[in-house]
């Protein structure tokens, strides 16, 4: 069974009290039987979020 964990942080970059960026970190365990394999981690930052919640820019910060 492959399950993931998700960490979400809403960021107020301009200090107006409204989140305008979302930082996410998602981790999946390794599917193989190898003992020393690291989990897969994807870290993204979505910025320029409009009133409907859609970002104007999504940047992958890390993929390991």
SSE inventory with pairings:
Elements: E1 5-11, E2 21-28, E3 40-47, E4 57-63
Antiparallel strand pairs: 1-2, 2-3, 3-4
In brief:
With 64 residues, the protein is an all-beta fold.
What features would you describe in this structure?
By secondary structure, this protein is an all-beta fold. The protein has one domain. Helix content is 0%, strand content 47%. It has strands spanning 5-11, 21-28, 40-47, 57-63. A four-stranded antiparallel beta sheet has the order 1-2-3-4, with no helix packed on it. The chain is elongated and about 45 Å long. The mean pLDDT is 83.
- Quote the average pLDDT: 83
Parts with pLDDT < 50 across at least 5 consecutive residues: none
Main β-sheet, spatial strand arrangement: 1-2-3-4
- CA radius of gyration is 15 Å
| Multimer state | single chain
Number of helices: 0
Proportion of helical residues = under 10%
Distance between the termini: 20 Å
Described by strand count, sense and barrel closure, the largest sheet is: 4 strands, antiparallel
**Number of E-type strands:** 4
Q: Spell out the helices and strands N to C.
A: EEEE
Q: Class by helix and strand content?
A: mainly beta
- Percent of residues in beta strands? over 45%
Integer tally of domains: 1
The shape is: elongated
What key phrases describe this protein's structure?
single chain, four-stranded antiparallel β-sheet, 64 residues, elongated, mainly beta
